[in-house]
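Quick one: structure tokens for this chain, please?
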Amino acid sequence: MLAGGLHSQANGESPTTDSMVFTAFPEADSYRRIVRDVDQQARTTIERALPFKVHFDELGPHTLLVAFRGRQPVGLLYLRSEESEWGLTEIAWALSLDLRVLGFQFLRGRSRHIHELQSSGFAKLLVGRDLTQLVEVLAKEGKRDPNLVPAGAEDLARTMLRSGIKALLVTDTVWRDEIAKMQDLSMGFDVFPGAERFHRKVARFDLTSSDDPSKVSANIVRATGKGNSHLGSVVRTEAMVDGNDVVLRWIVDERFRIVRIVPAQSWANDALRLHCAELEGAPLSSPPAGKNPLSPLARRLGEVLANLNTSKGGG
């Protein structure tokens, strides 16, 4: 089910890393490995977050493959080996940068149901879902259409679903910082296709709202074009908004006007989306007056970006 139709290797040799990456992401022309350790702290975090009981005994180095088109990251590939009643079953998970299932493929396994499950309605049900949505699929086990899973493949389907949940959870836990940077960079390429360089800077600043100061974390990707001309910025902020921890990505043009604000959370409610839409087109320095809780953040962000723009080297 990986894009391009990577063939199952249930009875043959495993595909090469090159073939897996470029089949999953045919638009890519290169890839990189990011190796990180699953230490005891990460293991504890993963075990506590899993919606099912399991002894996550996978300490040590883990590898995430990142596909690139030129300098732009386009997707992730993570391989998992799962214990099953047929021995080890290996599954490759293709993930988007916002950690949704793009596709998956059984690479190795001895179950005779692999091929039919791979093309089943149940397999299609998992594509496009994030971690929360996969957990919802697991919670509805026994209530969904039994015809989605081929007869006799029920245990393998359960292994596959749990593998997907672990793949997303491990990726988010172990490579969270790297993935956030790649998300910022990818959006920078999408918004500023003519950029010749991107400058990264991390800033933290105080935000005073309702007389309660809070600290804001901002990850800034500043785009420059020919002659080091300033094209604009993509800024990811983490701040408290209406009592909730909110992650937003701000698209800001060269005049420090708000092009759009994108909530990073898939759960963002209508009120937050309305707050974001109200500020589109406004200067950061003078957002519309009113009760929009994002206005104080916009003004402070404008000050930070203006200082960055005038500083030597642009950050």
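The two ends are 42 Å apart (CA to CA).
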